[in-house]
Amino acid sequence: MVAPFLRMGFVLLALGWGAACYAQAAPAVPPPETSARSPVDDAAQEQLLQQAMTQIKAGMNADAINGPLAQVIHTYETAYAHSKKQVYCAETLTEALLYSGIASSNHQNSVVLSKPNWAMAYYLRGYAYGSMGDLVHAEASLKQALVLSPFNSQFLSELGNVYENEKNWSSALDTFQSADGAAEFAPPEQKITLRCHALRGQGYVLVELHKLDEAAQKYNACLSISPGDKRSIDELGYVRGLQAKAGK
């Protein structure tokens, strides 16, 4: 079976995390409280995250975890350790308003950081642990990222990847389905890539569950929005071959 996706190609989506600052938008309703007077030097943290990504790309996962990622995580955890507000990180205004609404419905005071550096540090740490085969720490770190950004499609798909590697098929399928829905809140230029990633993840799991017709539907759904997606084409060909052997 063809590999479900190339993880390194996916992590590079993180290079654009600083580009989308929802505070630049002109919302029709008042935006949620943001970290306009952040106690953290966000620009410095972004530089550390870039350093970590360079190390991860070079296979220096432990160096990234114990070096720049540890620094970023310590900085934000220290800065917000005594906050009485629920802290979220968002990339878009839509995502920020969603988190603000969730907190309001739970009768919580909240602050939504317009630079998702803190959540991205947890995500990259989880990604690095996963690359090292340490699925326990990968899962824990990704769940920390999702506490801050519960509707981040990229984080959800990476957690789905961990569940997949653990052969926890039910959790993997649920998480990839959540990632598909959460792509709606991502920056516009990332939506198709994120949706296809989540759809391919579902397709892979459904093949493992021997639900070939459903798997084919997922790959076709990706091709309907990204007709040239080679991984979906390859996977769909694999599924068709299995169906032919099964006499379908």
TrEMBL record:
The keyword Magnesium does not apply. SMART domains: TPR. TPR repeats lie at residues 119-152. It comes from the Bacteria. The keyword Signal applies. InterPro entries: TPR-like_helical_dom_sf, TPR_rpt. Residues 1-25 form the signal peptide. Keywords: Signal, TPR repeat. PROSITE patterns: PROKAR_LIPOPROTEIN, TPR. This is Tetratricopeptide repeat protein. It comes from Dyella humi.
